[in-house]
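Hello Y.,

Per our agreement to keep a running log of every chain we model this quarter, I'm adding this entry. I've kept the format consistent with earlier entries: sequence first, then predicted structure.
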Amino acid sequence: MTRARTPDDLATPVAVQISYSVKQAAAATGMSEWTIRDLVRRNRLAARYAGSQILVDAESLASYYNSLPSERQVERECAANRRSA
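Predicted structure for the entry above:
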């Protein structure tokens, strides 16, 4: 059971995640860690490095995800290609 929120709770700033480890980025998107590393390597995802650890930019990850076609777009493109062949 959760307790009721108080005015003090509302004044407490909520931390916003600004980066993801490769493992977190893979879990958040459902992609493999290899795919995330490859996207970083090909400059499709913005990243920074803390030593050898790759930190994937959260905004870049969201932008890349939103740029992917929906299943319906893919189905329409496949159907259009079949008609034109």
